[in-house]
Amino acid sequence: MEMNQKEFVGKWIFKEGKVIGDENCKIIKLMIENDLIEFETSDNGWTKRYKGKDGTIWELTYPESHLHGGGPPKLAQIENLQ
Torsions phi, psi of 64, nearest 5? Predict the structure, then answer.
């Protein structure tokens, strides 16, 4: 993962009859679990905002929401408070 990257767009991969998240899906999950703190959720629950330990603000969305389960995630840096 490039540390300066400001956007991660997940994709789903069909492998051996199963749908799995690609490397970006894994990065997004790890960032949310280890580096980000949720501070805002949209009324419909499909958009969340997180604050990074370094002051960055990130937004989690699901741009392919027409897919089952909301589709793969997208995590984008929208602001830097430094």
Answer: -110, 50
Can you tell me the distance from the alpha carbon of 67 to that of 27, in angstroms, rounded to the nearest whole number? Answer: 21
In angstroms, the CA 75 to CA 59 distance is 6
Q: Please report which helix (H) or strand (E) contains residue 19, including its range.
A: strand 18-21
- Residue-level pLDDT, tens digit, the chain, 82 residues: 445 789 999 999 988 899 899 999 999 999 999 999 999 999 988 899 999 998 999 999 998 766 666 689 999 999 765 5
55 is in which domain, residue-wise?
7-80
Domain-located, residue 1: no
The pTM assigned to this predicted structure is 0.83
Which residue is associated with the tokens 């990065």?
A: 27
**Domains in the chain, number:** 1
d(CA 50, CA 27): 15
